[in-house]
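Supplementary Methods, section 5.1.

A reviewer requested that the exact input to the structure prediction be made available. We therefore reproduce it here, unchanged from the version used in the analyses.
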Amino acid sequence: MNSYNDFKQRFKLLVDKKKYLVVNTLSNIFTMRLIGNKTHGDLAEIGMAEFINQFMYDFRSIHVGKDLFRAKEHEEDIIIINELTNEQFPVSLKAYGDGPLQLSTDKDQKMFPFLETKGKFISDKAQIDSIFKSDAFKDFLNINVMPLIYKESLKKCNIMIFDAEKAMKETEKIIYVGEGESFKNKNQGKGRKHPIFMFLDKNDNYICEVRYGGASANALQRGLWTHTINAVNYFDSITNGWIDYSHNHTLVKLFSLALNATEKGHAEANEILQKDIDNFNDKK
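The structure derived from this sequence is encoded token-by-token as follows.
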């Protein structure tokens, strides 16, 4: 976690000094929604990996790729290496609208069944601490998720990191919200087809939730989730808040041409693009 924290601080410093770099890359990534609603998510992985390689000195990144999916130890999309310390850590890239955000798929379906054994209302701090230390929650602190959050109607985006350490420290209640139920007339849990366990702070503010983990549950119905609007106090923006982005229609045309061009043409284009990146990075 310390390696990831160091990376986040360095990313913030880069945004402070050269905000135009991340604005440009995020604009290009979210432009991919013009091609397809899910296209931007996959391309965000290679786009952000290359962003790190091009602009973040002392760090390099490797895109894990879909071919290695079955061999993944974690839910990573990219691996980031600190070239000064040789430390490396996995990061999961998410490109979501401003709202529900999946932090972990809980692919082994351990979290929800484990919480069921603890009862429907847990407020003892010692018991809550033991839950976070349990085998079912062992990866809670190792959630290296980099969410690229967007408000498409406003053309605004934000890279918001969920603060797992703060969430663990400030969780005061874990409550069961049944199918179709709501919590204290709030929208959390309302109209759900499956139950959840909701994590709350001392003021009953929403932190995160564990969704139903039964055998019939799909990826949207299980795992650890939070909500970027309702849990805003548990996020750290490494873009230092919301930034404006714009669509790059020329990029869509570039993809159209690239898919019909030859590898020789791609190689020549790569050289031109690299020179452009170098000049853009040196912009004063």
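Residues 2-247 form one domain. These observations are discussed further in the main text.
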